[in-house]
Specification:
- The chain has 13 helices and 13 strands.
- By secondary structure, the protein is α/β, with parallel strands linked by helices.
- It has one domain: NAD(P)-binding Rossmann-like Domain (Rossmann fold).
- A seven-stranded parallel beta sheet has the order 3-2-1-4-5-6-11, sandwiched between helices.
- Strand 5, helix 7 and strand 6 form a beta-alpha-beta unit.
- It starts with 9 loop residues before the first strand and ends with a helix.
Length: 331
């Protein structure tokens, strides 16, 4: 991200130590922004350390469910832009513990927006991370931004609510809010190895069969993390012209799980390791993919990475990651 727009802008990112949070915080900091990161914990092997964010941003330990602490931080920092990414992001965890997911994803969102509403001066822009999961089950695909938000399962419902709360704050208070809805983003630094891309790469690097929880026929969008970061930044930069709008970010190239596993296997030349299909996935939507026509037209956003190019960079990241950690364990 090279853009003079961000020079000296005061930016708060919630979930700053997460997968997307690290990439976005690093991009903003490198573009000259004064980034204040908020997160409840930092994984010891995450990109927070790989990107040396400890020296690039001001990181604060904070649970976004703590309204009073959040209010105190916002009042002191006076953010011009807010990126609200903090959430419980894993579908399987949401199915096992829906209450925790609802508290983090729904209460966390209304806390951020209510505190931002009462900031003086008011933030110039607020970007709320929703998801393609917010749409729920639809017969007509790809999803466009006009599709109803009708999540059925715990994670999906939490994102439908996040999205609707953001829309409510825009319509009621006229705040400069933009909403992002993206497919499954991937890239170096995602340490949730039950996700298909990092999990497959990890298995293959350890000469193990990759695991597919579903029947392999679930269809999804996959988009590289750098394209997502670019989309978030562009939306914030143009927020005054498009406030109140939601935008889908997608490569518009949906594929099923078995295909992406076979592509990763081919790129890593591990053809002898065929996937193990468990067919155990429950409470998940069979097919989800997005149209990004609106983002192309209004934000002039386009994905720069093909799936193959993005996966190659991702594989290289994990090769380095596991080699480095293997060497550490030997010491």
């Amino acid at each position: 991200m090279v853009n003079s727009f961000w020079q000296d802008k005061r930016v708060i990112t919630t979930g700053s130590a997460g997968f997307l949070g690290c990439w976005l915080s690093d991009g903003l900091a490198n573009a000259g922004a004064q980034v204040i990161g908020l997160d409840i914990k930092i994984e010891p092997k995450s990109n927070f350390y790989n990107f040396n964010l400890k020296k690039k941003i001001k990181q604060l330990h904070l649970d976004i469910k703590d309204h009073d602490r959040l209010k105190s931080v916002f009042k002191k920092q006076e953010p011009e832009y807010i990126f609200h990414l903090a959430a419980q992001p894993i579908v399987t965890i949401a199915n096992k513990n829906p209450v925790q997911t609802f508290e983090n994803n729904i209460k966390g969102t209304w806390n951020v927006l209510e505190v931002a509403r009462n900031c003086n001066p008011s933030p110039e822009g607020i970007i709320i991370a929703s998801s393609d999961k917010a749409y729920g089950i639809h017969e007509k695909l790809p999803y466009t931004e006009h599709a109803r938000l009708q999540g059925s399962y715990p994670y999906d419902v939490s994102k439908s609510c996040t999205d609707l709360i953001a829309q409510s704050y825009f319509r009621t208070f006229g705040m400069n809010i933009g909403i992002t809805r993206s497919g499954n983003f991937y890239g170096g630094g995602d340490l949730h190895f039950d996700r298909i891309v990092p999990g497959t790469i990890k298995s293959l690097l350890h000469n193990e069969q990759p695991i597919i929880r579903s029947d392999g026929r679930f269809i999804r969008d996959y988009i590289y993390i750098k394209d997502i970061v670019n989309g978030y930044a562009l939306l914030a930069q143009k927020i005054k012209q498009v406030k109140g709008n939601a935008f889908n970010f997608s490569t518009e190239n949906p594929i099923d799980v078995i295909t992406i596993v076979k592509l990763i296997t081919s790129l890593m030349q591990k053809h002898h390791l065929q996937p193990k299909i468990l067919n155990e996935a429950k409470s998940e939507i069979k097919a989800q993919y997005l149209s990004s026509k609106k983002a192309r037209m209004l934000l002039e956003w386009m994905p720069r990475y093909s799936l193959e190019r993005g996966l190659k960079e991702t594989i290289t990241w994990y090769e380095t990651y596991f080699e480095k950690n293997k060497n550490k364990n030997k010491k």
